[in-house]
Design goal:
The complex is a heterodimer of chains A (117) and B (500). Chain A is an alpha/beta fold and 117 residues long. Helices cover 39% and strands 22% of the residues of chain A. In chain A, strands 2-1-3-4-5 form a 5-stranded parallel beta sheet, sandwiched between helices. In chain A, helix 4 links the parallel strand 4 and strand 5. The longest helix of chain A has 13 residues. Chain A is globular, with a radius of gyration of 12 Å. The two termini of chain A are 20 Å apart. Chain B is an alpha+beta fold and 500 residues long. In chain B, the strands form 2 sheets. In chain B, strands 3-2-1-5-4 form a 5-stranded antiparallel beta sheet, with helices on one face. Chain B is built from 16 helices and 10 strands. The termini of chain B are far apart. In chain B, 57% of the residues lie in helices and 12% in strands. Classes of the chains: A alpha/beta (117), B alpha+beta (500). The interface between A and B is medium-sized, with 31 and 36 residues.
Chain lengths: 117, 500
Amino acid sequence: MPLRVVLIDDDRRFRATARRALEAEGVEVVAELASGKQALATVQRCYPDVVLVDVRMPWIDGVEVARRLQGKVGTTVVILMSTLGLDHGRLLAEGVAAGYIPKDELSLAVITELLAR
Amino acid sequence: MIRRRRDRRLALSFAGLGAGGPDATVRDTLRRVLGDPDLEIVYTQVGSGSGWITGLGESTPRPDARAGRAFTPIDRGGKPVAGLLHDRRLLRRPRRLRAAVDAASLALDNERLKAQLRAELLEARLSRARILDAGDRELQRVERNLHDGAQQRLVGLSLTFRLASRRAADDPELTALLDDAARELSDAIAELRELTRGIHPAIVEDTGLRGALESLAERPGLPVDLQVDLPERLPEAVEVAAYYLVAEALTNVNKHASATRVSVQAYVADDVLHISVRDDGAGGAEPSAGSGLQGLADRIGALGGVFELVSPPASGTTVTAALPLDQAVQTDAEQRRMTALRWFVRENWDMPGEVVDQIRDEDNLIAGKVMLLCAGGNASITDREREWLIGYLTAARDADWVIEAVATYDDSDTLEDLIQLPGIPETRRGMLYDSIRMCFSDGPFTPGELSHLERSAAVLGVTSDELDELRAIVEADAALRRRRFTTIVTPVLPHGTTPA
């Protein structure tokens, strides 16, 4: 069964690239969102394994999206991603998300490693 | 005869001032001779005639007579130069008051000049801090642009290279080329990340000083013994200055000090942030002109802080800074926002404008949620009511993220929980009142709205009599607004137009 992922990022071009890269590794991107507004409704509709959410977005940032999903999405795991450094991202993820992935390291292997923790 | 002798004693008291007598200031002398321990003196600014300053040179509104206090202006050639705020009872002894002011005349002139000098120094410091702040904001903008632009494009490219390398698996030469390119790109991304971190430390903004220091301590280099006891957030300018200080000091330790241990300490005492970085290395460090440490000393000075470098040869280096948390520096936009906010609380609540200084974004978010939940939540209100609420929060200059969070709020808290939060019980009548206004904004109350409001009032501990009074106020206000409409708007609109 492929890993099912929801991708949230306000940058359309990055969403397209990330989708292509993940799909090439057999990941199924079940939904793409340009903002966190519809995150909860989408997750409750699609039941993905993972939500990948960009940290820096206008209006509602990734940390707030993760906070809103906390405890409401069953076994779905929320992972933050950004171009920020690993130390910075990990601090942001503390207590609200399962972890942080620098965008340039985004891959099925890195996601699986985070899920295994 | 007795009076004349007393006047002479007064004159002698003030004569002691110029000679640095036991009373350090003219204020203390006036307090003593007039028997008013709370007496205060304010001065008009030299050359401006309008603004008032305290003896410390801080701007102050012209003091008005308040409960039990009276204000006596002191003029020179018909122009106000100073004023005393004193016990009202002294007005019953005008001659004594006059005599004290006359005797203090010369000393007051001196004090006024000193106050003026202090005011100018203060203004110079504030002006340095404003320049620094404007520079920081510009750098923050550059950092954002790099993050949203170049960095984002490069990470996209990096993923594409990896994808291409997978696809080229049958062609080892091409794969090697693509992997090389991907590695080069990774290095470029890492360098750009370092560069943007140096331009503006976004980590401070995102995680506060504590998180930012933890991240510094975890970076490669000598292990850092971190002792941090800090509140969640401090003024942004203070956090940024402290972060830069520790970052620069740690860089120096790793580069030059040949140290085996380094410790970072940060704590707040008496509204001052104390921060120190101590190593056991070679010592002998000096902040030369143009060096990172000198730049930091300037930054700390601009914030009214103190910077110290102790680095005797062969005895380690200690860099310390003390930064006052009270940073009155505001950009023009912030000043306008505060003016708007003060106007808002006065106009809406007849409260002193100063209360806005104590309101945080998080408080506004909770208030927005409570207003919504009192009316049954986002799920129950009409579009018109939501528009009223969002307009209201926007007019109150709430932060964008707060407004967005309220607009998309999923009603997931309970009033019972929210009312427990600190500071909320005191404002429950105000929030209920606003909720009533919101419900009334699209016409008379519906039975559903009334039942929500009644239930909410009970949860908030507002009696049904109080709820009735709040409703009556909203309805009476609506009647007054109709009168205003009839008088002001109706005459200029086509016949029959009704209020919006």
